[in-house]
Amino acid sequence: MEFIIPRQAVLAMESVANAAFHLVGGRLITVSLWRPAMQDLVRVYSNMPEIYPVGGVSSALGAEWTRRCVGQLESFLAEDEHAINSDAFEHQDTLGALQLEAAVNAVVAKDGTFLGCLNLLGSRGSYTEQSVRDADNLAGQLADILTALRSHLTG
What we know:
This protein has 155 residues and is α+β, with helices and mostly antiparallel strands. Helix content is 38%, strand content 25%.
């Protein structure tokens, strides 16, 4: 399936990604959309599309990550490469090659429904609980965008 993201949505996600880069940091910044019927995340924005292209799917999501993020709407902090190598993340080889050893998955939700995540990945020690709070504030700006994209991409 080819993913065509409307230009307005791309620009809005890029604006949030740029704000996240300046406020929280991150070398790889993506936005993922939750597809409840498939129980997976599809990438709808990437600042490194040549390595992490739009349309990439994460389907082997760990039970703890799913319980926390999807079920409890709590963002996830991976502080080091051990957490990145857990079942919360796919593509560990690519992440390791890029020396991305820490991450924040900031939950995007609306009306108690999980919509996806703003994902920030950086080097070990890049993120703290304050990083998560800052990313959460920015992720809230993506709720309407992801709601519209879910409708657009699933018809």
